[in-house]
Amino acid sequence: MRIVIAPDSFKECLTATQVAEAIATGIRKIYPEVEIIRIPIADGGEGTVEALVSATRGKIIPVRSVDALNRPIQSFYGVLGDGETAVIEMAAASGLEKIAPEERNPMISSTFGTGLLIKAAMEAGFRKIIIGIGGSATNDGGAGMAQALGFGLLNQKGKSIGAGGGSLADVYSINKTHVHTFLREAQITVACDVRNPLLGSSGATLVFGPQKCATPEMIKTLEKNMTHFAEILRQEFGINFAEIPGSGAAGGLGAGLMAFCNAKIVSGFELISQLTQLEVHIKQASLVFTGEGKIDSQTAHGKTISGVALLGKKHQVPVIALAGIVTDDLADLYDQGITSAYTIGDHSMSPDESMARASELLTETTERILQMMELQDKK
After folding, report:
1. Could you tell me the CA-to-CA distances from 170 to 71, 220, 299 in Å, in that order?
2. Domain with CATH 3.90.1510.10 in the chain
3. Counting C-beta atoms within 10 Å of the first and last residue's C-beta, which end of the chain has fewer, N or C?
């Protein structure tokens, strides 16, 4: 018997690797001798570097950067096993989890730190770069990232604009004089888990702004500012980035990377599953466990659980999904191949308690599920 564990992270709680280990512990309690294949998956958000470095036997490179509020932090990027490809997750610098809830403000938060990670990788000699762009604390359209790479975002007086989505309305022109020399040689691939456009009801600001503590008044301002910035990008680069699927990812960083870095956006799950040979392992499995922090109606649209479910269905392997929260609207996920979905906590627990005990609850839930399956098999 072979069991594959292929989870995403539980955001602001456990990495995908930690989730996989907790599930594996539960499996061992029922089946001590079973073969377990751990494949931590990320779809472009937190854990992308860890998943790819682990799968390809690469390494982590520590570097200094800044968080979304421009405070110095110790960050990192990864090098894949080929020794030629750097992998960056924007959440390692400009991520929501690095900012305390009371400090979150997309009017002033910036992707400058993400730009510093790109710069560090290029200056270390890497020209092939993968960037995962989930989990952002920002809504600046990649403006801060561009500034870190030498682009001048100037107001009408020829001065640099300030940080954050609140300053995008001030952009009047873009100066390319001091753009980093290595950028023109870089081949940048963006691993993205959403297909939201930059603007509108399904765009970066209206959909994701509230998650970053944007108030209704902030959202009006941020959308107006982003609309202005999108027009500046269209005039400067000759492309309407606002209409491209994924341009709204990470507060518009998707659009910024396409515009300033000539980047290509691809499915984060597809890219990572190819590099980890996920389908090969699922095809050979008897059972698959997957999971992420929340399973809801959006999970079926490009999230890790959806991708794992489709591979399970393709090869007729049952897939069990675990999450901290499971909603009722899962019809699409069941159609895609999920056999069953379980909440790891119970209604008596507060969200804080569930997060604090997530590893323990994952182990206990896995053990309980396998016990039930054994009983059913004996009937």
Report:
1. 23, 16, 37
2. 48-268
3. C
